[in-house]
Amino acid sequence: MTSEIPPRRRIAIGMRGVALLAAALVGLALCVAGIWQLEAARAGVTITSLQAGTTPMTVYRRDGAAAAPVVVIAHGFAGSRQFMEAYALTLAHAGYLAVSFDFEGHGRNPVAMSGDVTRVDGTTRKLMSEIGRVTDAALSLPGVDGRVALLGHSMASDIIVRQALADPRIAATVAISMFSEAATASAPRNLLIITGEWETSLRQDALRNLRLADSVANEGDTVGDPAGSGGRRAVVAPGVEHVSVLYSTTGLREARDWLDRVFGRSSSGPVAATGGAIALLLAGIVLLAWPLAELLPKREAPPPTIPLRSLATVTLVPAVATPIVLRFVETRFLPVLVADYLAVHLFVYGALSLLLLRLRGVRFGRLAWLAALALAAYGIAIFGGALDRYVASFMPIAARVPIIAAIAIGAVPYMLADSIANQGGHAALWRTAWIRAAFLASLGGAVALDFKRLFFLLIIIPVIVLFFIVFGLIGGSVGRRTCSPLAEGIGLGLILAWSLGVSFPMFLPG
Fold first, then answer.
1. In a domain, 219, yes or no
2. Which has the closest alpha carbon to 77: 469, 389, 458?
3. Which of 97, 237, 345, 411 is placed for a possible disulfide with 248 were both Cys, Cβ 3.0 to 4.6 Å?
4. Do residues 99 and 59 touch, judged by C-beta distance below 8 A?
């Protein structure tokens, strides 16, 4: 004899089915719309991969374009060629030959960054030499008329300013989110500074550099004559910060127009502001995770709620203890900037949390291996594949595989503890925010205790926040379906290790 499903339960099941179908259709539509727009931005441009010695380059050339100046495009810290594609496509559509590349230690460059990162004659000088080699290779390409400009973001802004001062071939410099002490009143020649509206300190620095040339100039003013003896300009891209400035229509148009003035050209073609399309694609992938997770085997009983006192113990004790303990531990064992410390921090924090959870009587539940592997595959292959093509390098070269494996030793225990404390995605939002804020505070404490060694962690913290938001939503869908925090934790731990392993610059001191 079978029991009849109550009417309210049938209605709830039906509404859930409709919601899942709607999520699947909307997610698919977002993915299609995003891919269509991103591929449309590439239409009419031939994209070729080349090498300048060991440095990987990508050349963007408009089909049928006449001989034109070449623009060498450099990414920022922990970036890659893909980060700069909006500028490369915009300039290629305008008829320029655009050449982007991966700095040593970044993206798919197999050579580790080296030198002293705190000294101009250390790492900075080595990266300047690399830009010089890429410039030589770019000028030798067919279709280049012998003229060259540099464009760079964040860390690269200082590198390109210094290189433009050292290399008389450089006719113009476009510095995005610039921080550099190297510029003078008249050099580098034809300097355009683009800063996001929300980059307050960098806007002040841009204005300072503009006023070296004219003490009363303001944002938006052009000092001198870029078509003649040389000019300088500082502009603000509205409504953007340090990363989204790379997709600002204002910034893209200003860069193109500035180079046109310097080189006496009149360009046409679309501005490839691809940020919105990227957001559509990634949002679609995140949304699709919910209906796809429903294909996994289901367990009815969710993990029990953890008492507040226990939750406070398993978060606050590791948050305080981990940075204090590691202050006295040597953690330099990977050829990557601060990733070795982060791996150890994750391991200690996760191990302490798991121990305290067990001592507090929290049951970990069963492990659904299929769900764990499906989550890892979705995050790495599907979401990561989209990132790799349109946003940033996500598929590792061979040298990064052992780095990912080493980070996983710390990332998996940490994400296991996080998922168990979050009840496999069933915890209230404020609990999730508390759990993850405690970990971020722990990283902040580590930086405060050893700022000289760990200040690069400050750059990575926003990446971890983004990971929590994006992959937390994907992992939560799996955790709520399977009621297996262990599956969610292992899957997210592998994704986190992969994400950090491909993002941190490879580095060898000396």
1. yes
2. 458
3. 237
4. yes
Q: Indicate the helix (H) or strand (E) that contains 76.
A: none
Pair 102, 142 in one domain: yes
- The residue segments making up the domain with residue 392 are 305-508
Name 346's Cβ contacts closer than 8 Å, sequence gap at least 6: 407, 410, 411, 413, 414, 496
Question: Domain tally for the chain?
Answer: 2
> What does the DSSP 8-state code read for residue 71?
E
pLDDT for residue 484 is more than 80: yes
Supply the CATH number for residue 119's domain: 3.40.50.1820
Mark out the alpha helices in 187-272 (DSSP H runs).
200-213, 249-263
- Are 364 and 316 contained in the same domain? yes
Give the Å distances, CA to CA, from 329 to 249, 348, 450.
47, 12, 12
pLDDT digits (tens, 9 = 90+) for 396-414: 999 999 999 999 999 999 9
pLDDT of residue 456: 79
Rounded to 10 degrees, the C-alpha dihedral 420/424/427/430 comes to 80
With a CB cutoff of 8 Å and minimum separation 6, the contacts of 89 are: 41, 42, 45, 60, 98, 272, 274
Cβ atoms of 466 and 499 within 8 Å: the answer is: no
Interatomic CA distance for residues 11 and 341, integer angstroms: 51
Contact 247, 275 (CB under 8 A): yes
